[in-house]
Design a protein that fits this description.
72% of the residues lie in helices and 0% in strands. The chain is mainly α. The longest helix is centred in the middle third of the chain and has 24 residues.
Length: 179
């Protein structure tokens, strides 16, 4: 079944034609969505993205114009767009407004229970770091985000995050020794 015939049948509500489209393009759309969502989400998010594309195809077959290209190309474009939207939404949900977090409220676990004042000293030194350094350390060590997640949320490359963590830890260590 060619693209024109398939779209024509889907527009008429032919479920067999729709099933043919799903069988034919599901793997392609899965690959497209998973390339974008690879480090940002689970397989469930990729699956939902692909399902959204097929729902869109079922509800709006008239949006596809066979004179402009192949159905597979149009579906990939829709999948890419949906995956990017989902990626952005996921990153916004993961954003941590660290500037709103008073450092004094961070939990330091067993270290915080020490009676020698180390936890208070650490809080004070952490508070002295610049905003980006503090945010990276809070994301990494208090929220346990991976470098890739931090990079995506802050618009950096994972290697930049790794370097900034290293330098921020060194700076924090020096401040602790001085305090």
């Amino acid at each position: 079944m060619d693209d024109r015939k398939m779209i024509s049948e889907i527009a008429k509500g032919n479920e067999k034609a729709f099933e043919t489209a799903v069988d034919r393009y599901a793997r392609l759309l899965w690959k497209t969505a998973s390339c974008i969502l690879v480090n940002a989400s689970s397989a469930c998010e990729v699956e939902e993205c692909v399902a959204d594309v097929f729902i869109y195809l079922w509800q709006h077959p008239e949006k596809y114009d066979p004179d402009r290209g192949k159905l597979s190309s149009w579906l990939v474009m829709v999948a890419r767009s949906r995956a990017l939207d989902r990626f952005r939404r996921l990153m916004r949900e993961r954003e941590i407004p660290t500037e709103d977090i008073p450092v004094k409220e961070l939990s330091f676990g067993d270290f915080g229970a020490a009676e020698d004042g180390r936890a208070e000293k650490l809080r004070a030194c952490l508070d002295e770091l610049d905003g980006e350094e503090r945010e990276i350390l809070i994301r990494r060590f208090f929220y346990e985000q991976k470098n890739r997640e931090i990079a995506a949320a802050m618009g950096l490359k994972p290697k930049q995050v790794e370097n900034r963590i290293y330098h921020a830890k060194a700076k924090l260590k020096k401040k602790m020794e001085e305090a």
